## 1
Amino acid sequence: MRKNINEDKRVIYLSGKKIPMRQCVGCRESREKKDLIRIVKSGEGDGIAICVDRTGRANGRGAYLCDNLECLRRAKKNHALNRAFKINVADEIYDDLERQLGK
């Protein structure tokens, strides 16, 4: 089986198929998109909602996390979601995301 990695490491080609890669905002490791969980910020102004999108199809700006609580805790410690979404994410939202990931 032939494996090529392009220069920016966003896509891996396995035998002619393109596999999208994304970077976890917690541990900063690049992984296949299907192995990560998408966190979505939707809405504008006062109507902002941040939630877990397991389908990967919800509208809004997305950030990716590994499917474990340790990466979420690292993201909280380093304010990674604040940078990804360009807003101040409250601790209550991190707690809510932790409950959603724990299921």
## 2
Amino acid sequence: MLFNMEERERPLRVTWLKGRTGAVLDHTNLGVWRLDDERCLLIDSSNGSARIAKIAAALEREGLKIAAVINTHGHADHCGGNAWLQANVGCPLFTSEEASLLVEYPILIPSQIFSAYPPRILTNRFVTPEASRVAGKLPPGPFVFENTEFEIISLPGHSHGHIGIRTPDDIVFTGDALITEEVLEVNRMMVILNLDEFLATLERVGELKADLFVPGHGEPFGDPARLAAVNLDFVNGMLDLLLQHCAVPRTREYLMKELIKRYGMSMNSTQYYLLLATLSACLSGLTRQKRMQLKYASEEIVFIKK
């Protein structure tokens, strides 16, 4: 999930990367594994019915029908095409156990962001996908589909149960575990659910080796260590800013204003709540790390650096 939800129209075609592994490089990148001459397995399903219908048509021009889908995580821009695929293609869907809760009960996504049943601004297709049925829940390790073995890599932090997928061609699809520099420049922020897990994932993915890495957004890359360092520098910069402001007690709303000003973000209501969720994850992480404390004072919650 990104802060900038504008979808720029791009030509829809499969870029074959190596062997049987390809990608549809779009606003949200999709992975393609050619099972045989007529069928493929898809990694993620884009954002909504209209887009995945066009992608399915592009695959059909390659002579391929979608036989199965693996979701890297349960955000609408990665699983928003699931319901259309199940209704029109009938293919099985796989994801991690944690992500399956969001895929099957998508109202949990905006409810988590809003901390209650969400207002309508958080139930649009950019945040809340249609519900879909999960056929299999994937633990980390090998996953065999029709005699083809994929590797499922645990990469949590951006979302519950976020996973990466390595194909037999040694190409890794990283979902939103890493944000490319060009995407970070446009969005000026990243979505974080669990700070500790996110930081551990940056370390883990930075140590991965593969022939090529395909992110959920942006261009494929070859050096995850360099990009992980860029992501880590960005997060540490944001944490340092919060700690500086919290030399005296600060409310979450005050810190929101300072983040928006610091990063020059132009926001709508939906983006505000996404940033608020990321801020909350950072504050929660800092309190668990005992670098900050949370207090109730004068009828409000404040955060102060330890």
## 3
Amino acid sequence: MKKFFTFMVAALAICGVACTPENNNGGGNEDGNFTIEVTEISAESAYVSVTSANDKTFYFDIVEKSEFDAYTDKTEFANETVSMLLELCEYYGISFAEILSLNNDSFYYEDFFEPSTEYYAFAFNVDANGVVSGAVEYVAFKTLEGSGNTGGSENVVVDNLVFANYENFGDCYESGAANWYIQMQDYDYTNIVVVEVQTALDATSLVGTYPISNTFEAGSSVYGFLNDSSYLFGTYWASIDDYNYIEDVILAATGSVTIAEATEGYTITVDIADESGRTAKATYTGAVEPFPDETTASRYSTAVKLNKRHALKVEPKSKIKRGAALVKKMAAK
């Protein structure tokens, strides 16, 4: 499957990785409290098991090496991880204690990883109140190479959109045109289609065809782009996976958006392609309502958040993936 973000295969990958974990140097855990094993490593999956030498609860998961290495203080990493998990648990009404482990535990990460990418499996002690103690211990591993086809469908067709919201942001691009942000999604919020059409400042109707453009002029639809803060802007399609992360995205480089009146509301037709030629086609018919006063960010938990312009934010895909999977499974019972 194609994902929006990219991640000694030899005997190590076949036999797995089992060793005394590293720790965060001076975290109070010099003797090592965990044995972490990573086995059954493939291009996108792996089996992780953790055995604790003490009787304290702990949390374990995986994280991309590049993300983890950015933390000079691994305790900060642990505290941020716990903060994200607490927010996730609160949203789904699950007790944080329910996703913690004791003595030993394991998890099979099926289709979690990117091929040929370095990761760490990590563990640290944390109590039911979210208080971290001791060091973060971790073991490195690398996934196998993929088959060469990293991608889901080259051509995406979305025909199950059921909700649409809009907001007029005025001349936010300072181009002398009014920006109309329209976000459409399916019932499960797994497909998100966003268009930003530019009209005259005094326009009273959105009916028309808007070619994709990077000029921000009236009569165009804003091309899709990622800003410096990792927010998606412009016109694009995005898919949200089962763990509330952006799985794939097509940023509009060419194509058009057409808005027509319908019996009840509007029909919005999106026909776009990104710079690589991947296409996304989507159609929505129905009411287009103003965004509610409160942000809809909670729909996407901690992984995909909305800023004040409702733009989707791209967050790291690892670090709490096991926790997210456990919480959603418990919430579904």
## 4
Amino acid sequence: MDGQPRTLLGLAPGGVFQANSVTQVAGGLLHHRFTLTSTYVEAVYFLWHYPASRPGWLLTTTVSYGVRTFLGNTATIRPAHPLGSIRLWVSLGKDYARTMIVLLPPSEGKTAPTEGSPIDLSRIEPFGSELFQARTRVIESLIEVSQRDEALDILGVGQRVFPEVVANRELWEAPTDAAFNVYSGVLFEAGKIADRGLSYQASESLQVLVQSALFGLVDLSSRIPRYRVSMGVKLPQLGSLAQYWKPHLDSLMTMMSTRQLVVDCRSGAYIKAWPGLDGDHDLLRITALRDRNGKRTVVSHAAKKYRGILAGALMDHAPELLESFDCVIGIARGLVGQNGVVDVEIRERRGFLELALVTE
């Protein structure tokens, strides 16, 4: 076809837009379910996959816009996955808002509130009622363990934090504060989350959640006490907390994240509590790489710093977020030249995309 005029044969009367070049898995119009559901009565969902393994072929690297369908003039089509497989949401006369859900790990060290009402589990978001009993069990178990002689061994901590273990015994009576003030580790300091939390409010465009060993999930604005327990701990009555929380969170998070973009700044045991690989959402995991003379290696502990910096930038841009990979990548690229960030690298993984902030 080189040198010859190319035509779309009338397939896209409204024009086309370029698909991203990372879409390299061969495919076409895949045979996936095509349903109307009770949750989204007015929505029809299908997957149309455009491979880009033939960059010289026009049809394999473009997504048709304006293709005639039985849906008529009421259908609106908007891309929800610009990288990897291209997914198109088709809604019948109704446009569903997408929320960017940012998942953070907690800090090991926490700032103890000096005043404030005791904890009210019914007011901890998200899932105040759904997780009420599960959260109660973990708190009661942690209080009991913290009174044992072997408490430090069970919780995997040293003598230095013994006062925090003792404080666990008073969790029901301890004063509370907004989570953005209680969590105070590297990630939260780098992202200036406490300062940004003052103007934060969960909205249709952004929700920031902390994966907590004690509460499962906590919205930044929920009031919590200081506590000392990590997701890798095995409580005698409950077992591994990551495994304890997983069945409680799977269905709830799968439902909450439906059609949303999840920006995952967690690692290790906190990912195990809700891997996020299943469900009808887009998943972008954040990591960090160090560049030494052109060779890039994974950054471990310092990754918290760069995840925090990106999370803070997303909070700053909340009113203008477009809830897409491109939006997050654009904000990440805006960090280049600051705090040692020299580049942004995107990798396609099995079931998710990985965004790495590259440092010197």
